[in-house]
Write a structure and sequence with these properties.
- The chain is of the alpha/beta class.
- The protein has two domains: about 250 residues, Rossmann fold (3-Layer(aba) Sandwich), CATH 3.40.50; about 200 residues, Class I glutamine amidotransferase (GATase) domain (Rossmann fold), CATH 3.40.50.
- Helix content is about 30%, strand content about 30%.
- It contains 15 helices and 26 strands.
- β21 and β22 form a beta hairpin.
- α1 crosses α14.
- It is globular.
- The model has no long low-confidence stretch (mean pLDDT about 90).
Amino acid sequence: MKRLSPVMLAGTGSDVGKSLIATGLCRIFRQDGYNPAPFKAQNMALNSYATPDGLEIGRAQAVQAEAAGIECSTDMNPVLLKPSGEHTSQVVLEGRVVGNKSAYEYFRKEGKEELRKIAHEAFDRLAARFNPIVLEGAGSISELNLRDGDIVNMSMAAYADAKVILVADIDRGGVFASVYGSIMLQSEEDRKRIKGIIINKFRGDLRLFEEGRKLLEDICGVPVLGVVPMASHIYIDEEDSVSLAVKDRNAVRDKVNVAVVLLKHISNFTDFNVLERHPEVNLFYAELPADLEAADIVIIPGSKNTLSDLLDLRKRGMAKAICKARCSGKTVVGICGGYQIMGEEVIDSLGVEGDIESLPGLGLLPVRTVMTADKTTRQTEFRFMDDERLCKGYEIHVGRTVTDRPFITSGDGTQEGCMVDERCFGSYVHGLLDNAPVIDFLLQPFRHDRMKTEFDFFTFRQQQYDLLADWLRKYVDIPRLYKIMMCDD
């Protein structure tokens, strides 16, 4: 196949849809016979994923790699920031934690050359193996105060010699100002790198924006490659938790109602995508004690700061409500940080998470967790209970939990998790609920006479990538994008 120039999806701001479009392009290039790979020099997200070699990257790049049909690696996201407080983030370089930094410490110019070198070397390794590289920027490309320390937006595009496509969110308003301003605030050299514009999240009749499209091209001197409508019918893993609190919390008759407890530092909420799409399930996120009353199943998710979230659950009455749910016969499940929260005590004498040295847990599981400085990151295969079907998942956590009632046995013989009975258990395994044996076990007590529905989540995800590719082909001028990527200027 002809060598294509790298392409970067840059944004007028955060949450404009760069990740989604990058995912769709990875799928399109794969469908068209190329061997693409995603790349984001620096990502800030609580949703992360373990690579096959037991390292950590942002979940978005793992999803994009899956859409491209390849294994994920840390070269796709060499710098990952995981917010752990209001102004502090855990810094993960090339898949390994190197410490915590305040926003001021991280974003000042000093010390950025080492990070830039790491990002450039990761890109070079990818570019030697794949064609094309689909780069993704971060936030807005027009943050002038951060430009000198930039390692992910236009400076990365310059290093990669990438064709830049600017993505704007029309749904939030001000699209003309955001597009024009983002382009005009670039240096002359960087402005020349912007080869196209994609207007994303359009609602209504596309014919109403035909004049707007022409106006944008005239004032910016850059072609509009597409106007993409809201793709609410396509389900791709979300990168952040902004939308979780607004999901409908009403119970639904003739479905199993599942409440996921909304934590302040919730992480890896993609653990619940299978349940959210499952035809027998109504899943919602619970913020108040009253939200749990309608639930059949209560799940406590992962957390970037277990002790802080445990304290917050007590303050707002959720801890008591979860224990009440257990006593009333509801199923209570904890994943990762939620597993730690369900135990008898969480101890952090080393200050790994912050200033709280220890707190009593909910006491629902006979386990005790001690936070440790080292982080466990690994993919795992296991058998669930007595089911012979092979299950898969991954672990990303700090802390060691002592248990004498494990219910998961990995392929290497490692035992993990704690189960009191079929309605009370916890595990460190993210992706636990992606597996049919676990879903069947979880839903069985509440199915009654409902017909059991088989749901293959892997096949579902592959279908969604294809739907996304079809959606972009319909609304984006992909042949013109290919011409841009084949051009040398």
